[in-house]
Amino acid sequence: MTYRVGIDIGGTFTDFALLKSDEVILHKNLSTPEDRSLGVMEGLGKLAGKEGLELGDFLGKCEAIVHGTTVADNTLIEMNGALTGLITTEGFRDEIEYRRGYKEDIWDVRLAPPKQITPRRRRLTVPERILHDGSVHVPLDEDALREACRKLRLQNVEAVAISFLFSFVNPEHERRAKEIVTQEIQNAYISASHEVLPRAPEYDRTSTTVVNAYVGPRVTGYLEKLVQRLVEGGYQNQLMVMQASGGVMTKEYIDGAPIRVLASGPAGGVIGSAHTGTAKGCPDLLCVDMGGTSYDMSLVVDGQAPAEAGWNMHHRYLIGVPMVKVETLGAGGGSICHVNAGALEVGPKSAGSEPGPICYGRGGTEPTVTDALVMLGILSTDEGFAGGSFSLSKKGVTEAFQKIADEMGHGDAEQAAFDCWRVVNANMSQGVRRTTAGKGIDPKDLVMLAYGGNGPAFAAIQAEDLGITRVLVPKASPTFSALGTLVANPTIDEERSYIASANALDIDRIRQLWNDLSTRARKFFTDAHFKADDIRVNYQLNMRYPGQNFSLSLDYMTDVPLGDLSFIGDDFGARAIALFNQRHMAEYAHIREHEVPEISGVRLAAHVVTPSPKASGGFTPGGKAPVAAKARRANLGTGFAQVPVYLGKDLEPGMEVPSPSIIEETFTTIVVYPGWKAQVDDAGDYQLVKA
């Protein structure tokens, strides 16, 4: 027997999904913010115990451990990354602050600029200049570079970003600068733009390189510590790390650009959603993940969650690497409820796992969404929470909500908890509307797939607000992002700049760029012990009309062997134009018939297919009527009443649970709100249907 383990670290819980043949075993334990690798090892020990094994024997039988992490995201959220300096071309010191003139909300006159990772005193320039064709116009002034290093050294920088003009065409100056910085600032983490994001435009590349330098030491330090603990524990294979692109790859690959793990946890959930939705005949999905700290929204269209490279604003910084689009709100089970200037607000501040919500009994004093669910009777205080790892308590919860009621000047503690429930619901629904409207999609046309520990508790009422009539809730929803890491394939997704009119292409240059990307991908895959013959590739082009700021990525050739460029022929440019016009029409509903588009870059997405959990099941009615295990006083939006409670372990495929009711699974609670019904499909998953 061999195992595959998926891990996702959240702000509150660390989730595990163990794939054992076709069986999936779930586990959750509280995250350990002081050293997140401790929480990982604790959870692996619990999984080993469930299999009747010692940790060493269990790890020895693991053929793959796949890990999604929020270390990079937390670093940006908390702004506690490495003390970072920037060395750039003379005259371009402030480009990182100009942000291409971008402002998140042009109507908000009070919106402050983002906190600078590299304030001006740590942004230094040196004389050097490489032109767009790669020729050297001004040689690198090494004396000036050493003086810049001296100034950064006096400021005790821990990381240095290097971004020179047109280094993606000719990296000669950046390579030499990296050598000198290594000599002058010992033990500094160095992030060079030609290694992190070797493409135009300038701001995108500089921003991505700076963020990579800022989060790099935290990410690599954490992964090194985790790998060391795994090896000491008996794990014999390479750790695979989830990427923002929706693929996984080895730690050695991630070390070159740690920024690729940004939003890797949420990406796992989206990939898992696409896999599950397609299997259940629902290719168009609104994916919502409500955990302990945040609420993540994303879209799956035609069964795909494509990774978009380019304008990915993440925590107010531009990240140019491919990322699965996920919008995040500070609305989770740990989001703190408070009164601000007489108005009730929920989040974005979170109680996290330490001290956590008041009901955890770990010293929390501020009421949270989870506490509100306890007050409303949606969550039980009678039995174990999170798989029995601990129990919830109402001690102190009533007093905290009574304080909110007093500050609001009306109602009692239960009314205050209900108001918090309404506010967080409204926040999430409005977030979904913003996301779908920005893409020109009506949520009524989608099926909602809800996961995370708290997603199923709110799913049906949110769906009703949005006009959605069907909700999928996987049985594995509480650890769905961890399960999604096991669905994701090992993937390398990179691009290189090449700008030319589509009817005047240097075919040999395009072939060379794709060959270079193929060689790089082959090295990392073979180092990870994947067979070269198993590597499949999508060859893509970035194209735009002249004058457009942004490019569209389109598939030129898909699912071909790595390095096979036989498809490049005399009709390459004409076919590229036809494909681009087709994509532009689909995306924007028009084409410029008398303009010739241009290519702005080439992209290669290589992957290897690995075993993944099976997903299947439609609903076949005819099961016997379920029997409620108990009832409790609860408010499901229409006032308090005795509500029947069903246990997930008692429900079988074909059963239908009427409303109003509550279904208690091991790690989550599913609420069947009035006007809905829950059905158990043939795979044991749930679907909520408007009655």
From TrEMBL:
Q: Which Pfam families match?
A: Hydant_A_C, Hydant_A_N, Hydantoinase_A
Hydantoinase/oxoprolinase N-terminal domain residues: 4-184
Q: Where is the Acetophenone carboxylase-like C-terminal domain?
A: 508-682
Hydantoinase A/oxoprolinase domain boundaries: 205-492
Name of protein? Hydantoinase/oxoprolinase family protein
